[in-house]
Amino acid sequence: MKNTDSRSHLQGKSIYLDDIPELQGTLYGLVFDSPVAHAKNIKLDYSEAEKLDGVIKILTYKDIPGENQIGAIIPDEELFAENEVHFIGQPIALIVAETERIARDAKKLIKFEAEELPAITDTKIAKERGHFIAPPRTFKIGDLEEGRKKSKYIIKGTSETGGQEHLYLETQGAYAVPKENESITLYSSTQGANSVQKITSEILDISMNKIEVDVNRLGGGFGGKEDQATPWAAMVSLAAFILKKPVKMVLARHDDMRMTGKRHPYTAEYTLGLSEDLKIQFYDVEFIQDGGASADLSPAITERTLFHATGTYFIPNTEITVFSCKTNTLPNTAFRGFGGPQAFFAIDAAMQQAADEIGVDVRKLQFKNLIKENNEFPYGQIATQVEATKCWEAADKLFSIEKQYKEVKDFNTKNTKFKKGISITPLCFGISFTNTMMNHARALVHIYQDGSVGISTGAVEMGQGVNTKMKQVATHVFGISIDKIKLETTNTTRVANASPTAASSGADLNGKAVEIACNELLARLKNTAAEIIDTNSNKIEIKDEFVFNNGKKTDLSWNKLVEAAFVNRVKLSEKGHYVTPEIRFDKSIEKGHPFAYHVYGTAITTAIVDTMRGTYDIESVDIVHDFGKSMNLFLDKGQIEGALIQGIGWVTMEEIRFDEKGRLLSNSLSSYKVPDINSVPKSVKVEALETEGHKHAILKSKAVGEPPFIYGQGAYFAIQDAIKAFNPNYKSDYIAPMTHEKVLMGLYQ
Ligand code: MTE
Ligand code: LUZ
Ligand code: MOS
Questions:
Q1: Which of 259, 278, 299 is the last residue of a domain?
Q2: Which ligand is nearest to the CA of 639?
Q3: 280 in the same domain as 223
Q4: What is residue 17's DSSP assignment?
Q5: Rounded-to-integer distance, Cα 200 and Cα 214, Å
Q6: Would you state the pLDDT for residue 726?
Q7: Whether the Cβ atoms of residue 145 and residue 79 lie closer than 8 Å to each other
Q8: pLDDT attached to residue 597
Q9: Predicted pLDDT at 2
Q10: From ligand 2's centre to the CA of 301, what distance in Å?
Q11: Does residue 513 share a domain with residue 364?
Q12: 338 CB under 6 A from ligand 2?
């Protein structure tokens, strides 16, 4: 089944925030943001700007009736800067005008003065000076000393991964419409309607029930709209609240890139110990995370790094620490993988370094140390239904790992102008919000008297196809065609208190809630059918929109049954509430069972390097992925392909740069390179592992949104392998991204 949105996307008929018909009298907002990275005693003179024809009002923190605070985990971020600014791009005021053009002209007339302070853009300096977002956290298992004693080989090293711009096709935006009795309808391009509602209510000092947040769909979020869609929504709401007019703001790409946070850059310092028989004995790793100027989601991202530090391997003695540093750059935020990819890169860099120093093939090390059934993760969860080795073996069977290695070797003995490289990336990714309390969801299902069905959930459609999956759940339970089902907008008055659509759990959490509601309704309809046919309700089934009695088709159709139930005054609406079972985590001891299950996989990546230019292509990526029992392989393979390319972009070409004053240099598509059709691997093959699936996954179909991002890192190691084939003296610094210029330097190092 295709993504039910694909036709309207293709025809340009899908409605995004900026396509919502505007009400008469709508005003437009534009943010005035800090031109300096760190300053105090800021002064804004906007008297000239406010005089400009068509400028309605310029709002600052002084206009906020409630709390000037948007920090969701730690209250350390103002909506509008009051006295100090902490990064370039930090909002200070909102210009409200009759058109966006006028607002832009007005912006040029605003005079900004401040006492500039030194800006810290380097996490090393931040750490030295003790500038932290939150105190460091450590996960431990076993005993490092014990591991050290058993180790024959001890490898020390460092690695580094860069930031990443989300580059959702639809930029951030929101549209606030004032309603009677000081309430607001707020359209927002957000992954977290509930966060938008809550923060806006605090800014305006009105109760949450006065704010209705509505989300039709996003043109991509990728984590960038989990938390950072909120400020724009709060700003237009503030303006609408004060001016009693509809107010809209959609960020221009350049403004979006300048003002929104990105993936967290990380450095890792590690020591890895292996015994003579190449079993990992210990891993001691310290991560330094660049949180940017305020906490945003950094503490939660820190957590996911801690949870994924050992990658897909079992390591009996481990100590992992993450330092979350505060710098005068954009507050970094959620991005597909959420601190996980940074952890995977570090452990696989350590594995590669170990293999090189010991003089063995890294794949032997990797395979030998894959996590197995009943192994304990450093956070205390016992690994069950482990598919790591099975994925690797299936990849070998389907894609002949040894043969591919031999082909690369043969090619390299025959060629000097081009060299090939190969790598393997195993995957083990935990599914559930790491914060246990976020793992619950609700759905509202109506069966209308004509037999059509309307479903509301807390899930946000952002291109990942969650709406299609929700429809599939209802189709599956009711035995009716997908054409009978409509997915309503995500709306806080229909489904309240929803967690953001994130952590890859949108389909699981909301799908289970839909399933619960549909099953309730089905039971009632079966009773009605049993009464009509005069049989026992447990003999009733509904298939292909007809009632079956004891396996035999009757002439009672779905539509007739629904009509009869309505006449019998049967309740045809139901709400489902789902809570992920079994999960728990005790932060005081950093142990528990935080994940409902894990997703596994193996990717084989080959690359070819032009040894004169330093340019490269990713030739092939062959993947065996653990989808569980995929409910929609078409959508799920799309998720794998998208995540893979996004991951390849991160480790190869996407380079976020600031100058020493904290100005973002990579602030447009001419200075920030993202993968395009030419950077897509020449061949991508995705095969599903044969497995039973997992009972906590929706219809046994495992979460697929983020995990395959990890496969992208294979490109880094494959390119590096090709460089080594040309330059035997090459010593990697394990710094990503592996840009073309970096490759060229490596070839002639
Ligand atoms: N796919 C598309 N097309 N667009 C997106 O913005 N976001 C990713 C992933 N796949 C995203 C996407 C991220 S970061 C997450 S957490 C999941 O989708 C969220 O959706 P799910 O929970 O329904 O998988
Ligand atoms: N958001 C969050 C996430 O709040 N908690 C998580 O565990 C998470 N994981 C991935 C992406 N977003
Ligand atoms: Mo995804 S980073 O959980 O929005």
A1: 259
A2: 1
A3: no
A4: G
A5: 13
A6: 98
A7: no
A8: 98
A9: 85
A10: 7
A11: no
A12: yes
Spatial CB neighbours of 180, under 8 Å, sequence gap ≥ 6: none
Cβ of residue 667 lying under 6 Å from some atom of ligand 3: no
Residues 18 and 67 in one domain: yes
CA dist list (Å): 91 to 56, 80, 88, 556, 618:
19, 5, 9, 61, 40
Other beta carbons within 10 Å of 680? 16
Residues classed as catalytic: 706
Which of the residues in the chain have pLDDT under 50? Answer: none
In the structure, how many helices (H) and strands (E) does the chain have?
19, 28
* Residue 8: strand, helix, or coil: helix
- For residues 328 and 364, membership in a common domain is answered with yes
Q: Which atom of ligand 3 is nearest to the CA of 335?
A: 2
79, 237 contact by CB (below 8 A)? no
* Residue 688 included in any domain: yes
229 touches ligand 3 (CB under 6 Å) = no
Q: Are residues 447 and 391 in the same domain?
A: no
For ligand 1, whether the C-beta of 502 sits within 6 Å is: yes
Which one of 338, 440, 464 would you pick to mutate in the ligand 2 pocket, going by the greatest count of ligand atoms within 8 A of its CB? 338
Range of the domain at 61: 6-117+166-259
In angstroms, the CA 336 to CA 297 distance is: 13
How far apart CA 450 and CA 198 sit, in angstroms, is 37
- Summarised one tens digit per residue, pLDDT across range 384-395 is 999 999 999 999
**82 token code pair:** 């009051």
State pLDDT tens for residues 474-499. 999 999 999 999 999 999 999 999 99
Domain boundary among 553, 579, 605: 579
